[in-house]
Design a protein that fits this description.
two-stranded antiparallel ribbon; alpha+beta; 5 helices; Heat Shock Protein 90; 7 strands
């Protein structure tokens, strides 16, 4: 009987200790996962910014060369060749200006950074986006959503050959909601479990996907996915 009381006392002490320290341990684990996720976000953002700067440096270098060429044509009195060169340059500059303007500055910044990175990875892009200047969704939350959707799409495209890589983006207002649709090329129809598509992501990647879904749920939105043999689509509705 004595040993039973000792065992029960030890068990009660153990439970009390767990009740005190377990929440702290769980908070530390959650904070650590959030820290890793934020670190990866910063790393990806740095890569995106570096890609944009590289493009800007290329434009600056090309601009200098174009000026020198036009000066040479004028100095030689070759006005017809100068006119022809200006026509070609105008067409080239039109194709270079690939910035997407949605009507929302934050969305423009987040989306163009991802699009620039996608172009550097030889992914064909089709973008139609109209977004109100003001939204009920916080900028940081919308950035997480756009970032995760684009990261998922680019990772799927990386598994495809260059000629089969594509991402289609559509953003617009539907009723009182912001509608976001991202479709990307996919190597086969993904598996389902419990009515949901199974992701191969783990660690901070999986945490990013979970955070995106939590954000959509926080605003009372809807997140749907649809997988086919050669394409995967994510659709999101967020109250504006």
């Amino acid at each position: 009987m004595f040993w039973i009381w000792i065992f029960l006392s030890a068990f009660i002490i153990l439970l009390a200790t767990a009740a005190i320290f377990l929440p702290r341990i769980l908070r530390k684990m959650a904070n650590r996962r959030a820290e890793i996720f934020q670190t990866n976000l910063v790393t990806r953002h740095l890569e995106e910014v570096q890609t944009i700067y590289k493009e800007m440096r290329g434009w600056r270098h090309d601009y200098h060369n174009h000026i020198q060429t036009m000066k040479a044509y004028r100095a030689l009195g070759q006005e017809d060749r100068l006119d022809s060169y200006l026509t070609e340059l105008d067409a080239d500059l039109t194709s270079v200006d690939k910035l997407i303007r949605t009507g929302n500055v934050m969305v423009d910044a987040a989306l163009n950074a991802k699009l620039s990175l996608a172009r550097s990875r030889d992914i064909a892009l089709s973008v139609t986006a109209k977004v109100p200047e003001r939204l009920s969704v916080k900028d940081v939350d919308l950035c997480v959503i756009i970032g995760n959707l684009m990261d998922n799409a680019m990772e799927a495209c990386a598994k495809m050959t260059k000629e089969k890589r594509f991402i289609r983006i559509y953003m617009d207002i539907k009723g009182k909601n912001l509608y976001i649709s991202v479709t990307n090329s996919s190597a086969g129809k993904p598996a389902k479990s419990g009515g949901r598509f199974v992701t191969s992501k783990t660690g901070s990647h999986g945490f990013g996907l979970l955070r995106m879904e939590n954000i959509v749920r926080k605003y009372g939105g809807i997140h749907k996915t649809n997988g086919e043999a050669d394409a995967f689509t994510s659709e999101i509705l967020l109250p504006i």
